Structure prediction request, 231 residues.
Amino acid sequence: MLKALSSLQKILVVDDDAELRETVSILLEREGFTPIQAVDGQSGLGQALSLKPTLMLVDLRLPGLSGIELCKQVRANRLPIPIIVLSAVRDEVDKVLLLEIGADDYVVKPFGTRELLARIRAVLRRSTGEASRVLRFGDVEVDLDRRTILRNQKEVKVTPAEYNLLSFFLQNADRALSRDLILNSVWGYEFYPNTRTVDAHVVKLRQKFEQEPAVPKHFVTVHGVGYRFLP
Prediction:
């Protein structure tokens, strides 16, 4: 459904890196979207106001009007355009900042084409009300509205922390997530003496939802980083 509609969807790419803009535009065009390019924040704002794209990709570090200010201006003008922030590894992007500037999601540079497309489609689904509130992986079904989990049609009991961690994994599928990011997002700790609490809870999720907990297929360790959830 989304692919069939994509030819009607304009995506505004705001980045001062000409090579990146062109690469992303080619990718979007190949997927059936209509790409629009802007070289800086001021022209990006002008295009957003006049063309009202379906979605915006905005680099945080823009000359003149910064990406942060651009996002704020878009929201100040009451434009209901979903925004995905493009940030460099050195930029600190957290959920608080995203909320403050009115962004819906972020992708860290350098990013893979598969990840960027997945992010775009997920944000578009949410913005158009198409997002499923029942998520599935393997023999597990998670109802995000009722906060219930079924495995082979039988309810599985989990603690609030386990549920929140599972929900975070489901909504960030196929992303390498650091332990610090998980702690901050799930438990709300910006700084914490150690990250063993994450490891302990991942072990519990594996025991409850993996066919073979010792050889996990869904909750996979990313060495030197943290974890990746594979549906």
